[in-house]
Structure formats: structure tokens, C-alpha cells
Write a structure and sequence with these properties.
The chain is of the alpha+beta class. 40% of the residues lie in helices and 22% in strands. The protein has three helices and four strands; from the N terminus they run E-H-E-H-E-E-H. The protein has a four-stranded mixed sheet with strand order 2-1-3-4, covered by helices on one side. It starts with a strand and ends in a 6-residue tail after the last helix.
Length: 85
């Protein structure tokens, strides 16, 4: 997986903070990068996800929405082929 995962959210979003706390250790252990994006900076994404944040994306693929666990995230990333040898 060469491109980073993107966490869509906005400042002051407690669910975004919760998701970040879960996903960062998983991504770091897998050697994956995370980029955060304020949903309000992209009108198309804001229309699509305004009431759905946080959302974790890999390219155009949704990896997780609202909440996830470390186990769920790892399984989802494995199914997407994100594991590095």
C-alpha cells in the first residue's frame, strides 16, 4: 500500500479523536502512513460524509466509518492487501 490512509474528520470531533487513538498504533505496526483531512476543505467530501465522520479511506475505498477496533481494522487492511512483508 503506497498511498497513505486518510482520516476524514474535523476539529472538535470526539469520535475522530477516538478513531485516531485506535488506528494509529495499528497503522504504525503495519508500516502504514496516516494523513488527516478536514472534511470541510473539500465540498464534495463534505456533502458525502458530513454526518458520517470519522471515515478512514484508502484511495477511494472506505476502510472504516464511525468506530472500529484494532482487530477489525487489521482484518480489513489485510483483506485490502495492505500488509507489507
Amino acid at each position: 500500500m503506497s498511498e497513505p490512509l486518510v482520516l476524514l474528520g474535523k476539529p472538535g470531533c470526539h469520535l475522530c479523536d477516538d478513531m485516531r487513538a485506535v488506528i494509529l498504533p495499528v497503522l504504525q505496526s503495519m508500516g502504514l502512513e496516516l494523513r488527516e483531512q478536514d472534511l470541510r476543505d473539500d465540498p464534495a467530501l463534505e456533502r458525502r460524509y458530513l454526518l458520517e465522520i470519522p471515515v478512514l479511506l484508502w484511495g477511494e475505498q472506505e476502510v472504516a466509518r464511525h468506530r472500529t477496533t484494532a482487530t477489525e481494522l487489521r482484518l480489513r487492511l489485510e483483506s485490502l492487501g495492505a500488509l507489507r512483508p
